[in-house]
Structures are given as C-alpha cells and as structure tokens.
Specification:
Blueprint (H helix, E strand, L loop, with lengths): L2 H12 L4 H7 L1 H4 L12 H12 L17 H11 L8 H7 L1 E3 L9 E6 L2 E10 L2 E4 L8 E4 L5 E5 L2
Antiparallel strand pairs: 1-6, 2-3, 2-6, 3-4, 4-5
Length: about 160
Amino acid sequence: MTAQMNVPSLMTRTGAASALTLAVLGASMLAPGAASEAQAAPAHSTKALKVAASKKGAPYGYGAAGPNRFDCSGLTLYSFKKAGKRLPRTAQSQYNKTRRISSSSRVRGDLVFFHSGRNVYHVGIYAGSGKIWHSPKRGSVVRLERIWSRSVWYGRVR
C-alpha cells in the first residue's frame, strides 16, 4: 500500500492530519490535481522565463521588442520567440491568444496580465513567489518585481 493510499485511513483514525503529516506526505497528495508553483511548466515557458531574466537591466523602449530595448509586450514576444513560440505584438492580443488559467494553477513562465475592467494594459512573465519579469515603463529597465495588483489574469502560451 502506498503512502497516498494510507492518507485517508490515517485521517479517519486520527480525525485530522497534523502539520508534520502534511509536510511529510505533501499537500498535493491530499488534493490530487491541485497545482502548485512546484508543478512543471511547459518547456517553452521555462525557456521564455530564462530569456526574460537574461534581459535584466535592458532599458524600456516604447514599441521595442528587443534584443536590447523592450516594452512590456515586446519582452514577452521576444522571450517566447526565442523559446520557439509566436505571440501577437500587444498585451491585449497576447491575452486573447493564451489559455486562461487560475492563479492557483499558475506556474513559472505563465503570462500575467494586468487589467482595468476588461482592458489589458500590461503583461509580464511569472517567475514564482508572486513575482514577474517585466519592462514596466518609460525610464525604467527590465526587472523582477512583486505583483502589485489584484487586478491580474493569468494565461498559458500553448
């Protein structure tokens, strides 16, 4: 009998699992199918994330899509192109092209879309731990930054 099969009987006998039991067995065993940040990202997403990180410090340029200057959607376009995937040019078009995912299903390399109402105005690449790689605005550079808004949607490049 595997550890996963013992979990329900353990919980039945004790009434609840201790924090130590959860740590030893892993929370994903208790909730099959639940995604975590440790879940494997598609290979192209992992590569795109690495490309974006390699552009740390590159200056913002309105309408720029690399290799030395970027706006937000230019960085995602460039990064996924290097990973062998095609994305449209603007943040809104990129959102329209990706598969929608929940925040609990996000993994490193997914796209994070910032929106106001139904309009997407910014995009970055999820880096894990609530952070994104992005090219924020005029006068700034590509950088890793904590997600600062709750008005975000997540998309996965197919």
